[in-house]
């Protein structure tokens, strides 16, 4: 019986490893070409990895939480391999690096368009591809009712389903974080959802019941960096924990370090009277509660109009040249369980406030679900950061490398303000623009910031021209 070993493919964007989040199959399962076998988390997103082989799962190389390098074994499959993988297996035997893989996006299908039994998807594994595969892919997200749970070992009896070796059946990153912060291990929590799916209320119930917290699981990796304990030589304090810098936090750290190292940034700021904008949105909401954009969408629309007048800020420096773009991909900061992510609205300059609001909501949900693609998170040309949601007034932000500028918006609060020669209480916010001083000077940055501020203070006049 032949055995094929599927190596973790190149996930793109220069990523060299991924954290194994969940197995979607068990040892002994029959799988088809293109069937997702594992969920992995990279520095960019949470993705499903489909198998290029059909057959019986022989070995699962790793457990939930393990970090697997690109080109290392992910899963071994016994039985007839997929013909479409022949080219890859030849390269593998020759010791070549596995070719790059394109993980299909929303357009991916799980069965042949013509319904034939011998057609592969053709768009899941580009490079050692699946055209002419062994049939349609059947997505196996959860085990069948009464069947064995997903795990990293052989199927266990039902009585052992709650043992420490069972991979937890959980989908939501929020549930994982809640359990991790509470010191609980998900595999020790009985799920109330279908087939034992662990839900948020299950974790909250376990925390309320005072479930014993197991010892923290050390992250993979050799040496003291993976374990707590000991005394810090510099401070004399005990070390409570060591957390490897990886995944999205590592990617953020590298990008921020590069930004501060390579970009000579400058900062300008202004207080703005947002009373008229708040009142305008309130009036619109009273007339059409379901379709009124949020304040951030209106500000985004003003930012895009400002970039049309000051296009220098919608550019980047590359190979000694200033590259200016025909159009704007507007990035916005979104806080998620995996850290701060910056999805971008492609072609944002072509959208009105309602369109921007819809995209902000959609991309925020995608990012928080861990489903944002690398392209979603790396295609921005200018970033808007609403840190007012954290209850702060201002921030000297770091430019989202390799962009040229970032605009921050603080909270809108009641403040004393002189309006029409009289002291009054107005809705005031602070705008902070951080820009690359190599690309433009203070006149351009100040002109852009003043334009956005004037638009917020007189929104009806500006919106009439958009």
From TrEMBL:
* Listed cofactors: (R)-lipoate
Under the heading Gene3D superfamilies, the entry gives: 2.40.50.100, Chloramphenicol acetyltransferase-like domain, E3-binding domain
Keywords from UniProt, A to Z, are:
Acyltransferase, Lipoyl, Transferase
Q: Where is the composition biased (Low complexity)?
A: 145-166, 211-230
InterPro entries given for it?
Answer: 2-oxoacid_DH_actylTfrase (IPR001078), 2-oxoacid_DH_E2_comp (IPR050743), Biotin_lipoyl (IPR000089), CAT-like_dom_sf (IPR023213), E3-bd_dom_sf (IPR036625), PSBD (IPR004167), Single_hybrid_motif (IPR011053)
Entry superkingdom: Bacteria
Question: Might you give the EC number(s) for this enzyme?
Answer: 2.3.1.-
Question: Residues in domain Lipoyl-binding?
Answer: 3-78
Residue ranges occupied by any Peripheral subunit-binding (PSBD) domain in the UniProt entry = 170-207
Q: What class of enzyme is it?
A: transferase
Task: Give the start-end ranges of region Disordered.
Answer: 86-166, 211-231
Transmembrane stretches, by residue range?
A: none
Q: Which family does it belong to?
A: Belongs to the 2-oxoacid dehydrogenase family.
Protein name as catalogued: Dihydrolipoamide acetyltransferase component of pyruvate dehydrogenase complex
